[in-house]
Amino acid sequence: MKRLVVLGGGESGIGTALLAKAKGFKVFVSDKGKIKETYKNVLIHNEIEWEDQQHTESKILNADVVMKSPGIPDKVALVKQIRELGISIVSEIEFASSFTKATIVGITGSNGKTTTASLTHHILKQELEVGLAGNIGDSFAKQVLENNYPNYVLEISSFQLDDSFHFRPKIAIITNITPDHLDRYDYKFDNYIASKFRIAQRQTKDDFLIYDADDEVITKWLQKHPVQSTLLPFSLTKTIENGAYLDENNIKITIDNNQIIMPTANLALEGNHNIKNAMAASTVAHLLKIRKQTIRESLENFQGVEHRLEHVLKINKVQYINDSKATNVNATYYALESMDAPTIWIVGGQDKGNDYRELFSFVNEKVKAIICLGVDNEKLMDNFAGMVDIIVETQFMSEAVKIAYKIAEAGDNVLLSPACASFDLFENYEDRGRQFKDAVRNL
Q1: The CATH number, out of the four listed (1.10.110.30, 3.90.190.20, 3.40.50.2000, 3.40.47.10), of the domain defined by the range 310-441
Q2: pTM confidence score
Q3: How do residues 252-301 score in pLDDT, each as one tens digit?
Q4: Assigned CATH class of 94-301
Q5: Which of 307, 407, 412, 426 is the most exposed place for a label (fewest CB within 10 A)?
Q6: In 3D, which of 365, 389, 368, 392 has the Cα closest to residue 380?
Q7: Helix spans in 253-377 (H)
Q8: Is 110 annotated as a binding residue?
């Protein structure tokens, strides 16, 4: 009986443990932190051995295979020990994909993953049985065990791809690649790019890679490192023969001389980056033979993703916008780009080696005040102090929102778009976004 050790008792860990047990593995779950009560109960109910607040090496280093949570970096001593012993480490995506014959749409990128995955799933589910998993919703492993859908849309991070070797999505999407998480890639951008491209490494000529042709990082990498799959680029500026492009106010998608046209006028989501997300999702739908009418209606009635440019409330003619999911500079770039009124910007958190220069022109043009919300705001102060009349700092969301309320005038926007990770003051970006919304509702 093969022994599988799961490091990390979160959503992906518990899902993997359940699937592994059902497939005849002897399973042990170990978490250095506390495992949530709900997850503990699942493990106990299913008679799966577990521990938390410690790692017992004797119970881990005898594994045949280890599934580690994507949040655990490779530089952790225990992970190094496991590798030195030649024990294979896999991601949940890698492990679960070997137990399904489903058609998989895998979506990665620095930004736009969640929106593109949610939108793709929203279109496909109108006509297909399809699961949504990966970095989003219930774990992929658990869905493979319980639902066994014939199709899946997976949102996949670079960390999940790092431990994937045989994973081969029928359709892969790379939304864009900008410097992010460089602290996990020895501060080398090329390592991070290579990690994203692992999504296509096992693809064959019968598979498809959909990507942003306006993204120089992606196009240059593809020139040097060609892939086997059929390329379907999308672009806002170029005419694309096979793939999607913008022609005036229409998205035109061509696959094997079969063209569909989608007007952008009634897209539910605003901003150029969302036209790109719509192109990627519609290309998948067109590949999977979803009817044109269904695609169009789905693009028009899609509700968007929580914590992603989410309009919370309008108070005294001031619009409060929650973009807590903007955990890197490029995501905040899209947010500021889409602001069409003077903006009070709440920014800050755990900096991942950010370069704020690409935001300067928007800050000069659109931002009237900056509220820094982090434990260490020195870098933000250094970058932006000369650009705006008001720059203040706080470590409390409620205070940040109160300050914004005082500064804001009718017609302004108050935008939470942190450009940083949330772990210095909050549990995660969801917690940060919910605290923002609560504080706005309590004004």
Answers
A1: 3.90.190.20
A2: 0.87
A3: 999 999 999 999 988 888 888 899 999 999 999 999 999 999 999 999 99
A4: alpha beta
A5: 407
A6: 392
A7: 272-287, 292-301, 329-337, 360-366
A8: yes
